TrEMBL record:
PANTHER family: THIAMINE-MONOPHOSPHATE KINASE. Residues 47-152 form the PurM-like N-terminal domain. It comes from Cupriavidus basilensis OR16. It comes from the Bacteria. This is Selenophosphate synthetase-related protein. Keywords: Thiamine biosynthesis. GO terms for biological process: thiamine biosynthetic process. NCBIfam families: AIR_rel_sll0787. GO terms for molecular function: thiamine-phosphate kinase activity. InterPro entries: AIR_synthase-rel_sll0787, PurM-like_C_dom, PurM-like_C_sf, PurM-like_N, PurM-like_N_sf, ThiL-like, UCP036540_AIR. Residues 188-298 form the PurM-like C-terminal domain. It holds the Pfam family AIRS.
Length: 340
């Protein structure tokens, strides 16, 4: 596929579709969001990986994830594991460390929920995060699962802190395989728990050492959809080089760009710090590469093999932030303080 075909494929993908739906959700909530966030001392606007509420010694982080029904039906253990894993990733993507999770699970009988719960328990053991409560309904006609998490951060990494001139880094654990036939790149379930925790500790360490202020974990929208969320929240554009994206051997780029890795992050880093940040991931055998540069264009251009194509123009199309609420989001972003 050439660059223009990759752009067309991404814009039509399920992952992009799920993320662009967020703009409609925010529009429905309307003006209920901005004032409430200020009242809570919310340090970042909606659009980040977690809510971040300032307190006396840093930030309380709060996030939630839900699993789609077909995934739960087909891979119940891995769905339970993933529900915890993605929440843990959200906390670390904000520069924090997780404290505990709670779950809400619906099933047709206790037996149907058993594998999901075993997967959750395995992930909690691997990442060292306890389940401290939740809600269950074993008399539902189908399975559903949502997991929420709390954590704490001393210094934030945020989707709203990227600036023109920053380098866009992609860090991803390539020591895994697809959980076929799904787009989930699993580098977690077979890894030693101590290594999983130490690899994630890189994120808050970068924040606390002042080497990075902006980051986002790679979600179901894939690396480039996640980049769009980060860039839109920060009000910037970028030029991204597909040829620089770290990828597993033998995996077609079109598939890799829609993958949801169990360990994958995008970071916007000052040019003078990019080499040091890259080296920290490399020291732990995590692939990390400089894949592009941020600018003030509010356009995202992709290049590769001598070709260039426009992936997104935020001036004309919202990705996750509706145009009508852009001013409100910008006002909150500029009125709040993020330690960097």
């Amino acid at each position: 596929m050439n660059v223009a075909q990759i752009v067309q494929s991404l814009r039509a993908s399920r992952g992009f579709g799920h993320k662009t739906d967020i703009a409609g959700v925010l529009s429905s909530l309307g003006n209920a969001l901005p004032g409430g966030m200020r009242d809570l001392g919310q340090a970042v606007a909606v659009g980040d990986d977690c809510a971040a509420i300032a307190d006396h010694d840093g930030y309380l982080l709060f996030a939630i994830e839900g699993m789609v029904r077909d995934f739960i039906d087909a891979r119940p253990w891995f769905a339970g594991y993933s529900a915890v894993m993605v929440n843990v990733s959200d906390i670390y993507a904000m520069g924090g460390r997780p404290l505990a999770v709670v779950d809400a699970i619906w099933s047709d009988g206790v037996g149907q929920a058993a594998e999901v719960l075993k997967g959750m328990a395995a992930a909690c053991a691997a990442y060292g995060v306890p389940i401290v409560g939740g809600h269950s309904n074993a008399r539902s006609d189908h399975a559903q699962l949502a997991v929420a998490i709390v954590g704490r951060a001393r210094r934030l990494l945020s989707s709203f802190a990227a600036r023109p001139g920053d380098r866009l880094l992609m860090a991803v654990d390539l020591r895994g395989a697809f959980a076929e036939p799904y787009p989930y790149w699993n580098a977690s379930t077979e890894a030693p728990p101590a290594r999983l925790r130490a690899d994630l500790e890189l994120l808050p360490a970068l924040a606390e050492d002042g080497l990075c202020a902006a980051a986002k974990d790679i979600s179901m929208a894939g690396a480039l959809g996640t980049a769009l969320m980060l860039l839109e929240c920060s009000g910037v554009g970028a030029r991204i080089d597909l040829d620089r994206i770290p990828a597993p051997a033998g995996v077609p780029m079109a598939r890799w760009l829609t993958a949801f890795p169990s360990y994958g992050f995008l970071l916007a880093v000052r040019e003078e710090d990019a080499e040091r940040v890259t080296a920290r991931f490399g020291a732990r055998d995590i692939a990390c590469a400089d894949i592009g540069v941020l600018d003030d264009s509010r356009q995202v251009l992709l290049s590769g093999a001598g070709e260039t194509a426009l992936l997104w123009d935020f001036a004309h199309d919202a990705f996750i932030v509706p145009q009508a609420q852009r001013a409100a989001h910008d006002a909150i972003h500029h009125a709040t303080h993020i330690d960097a």
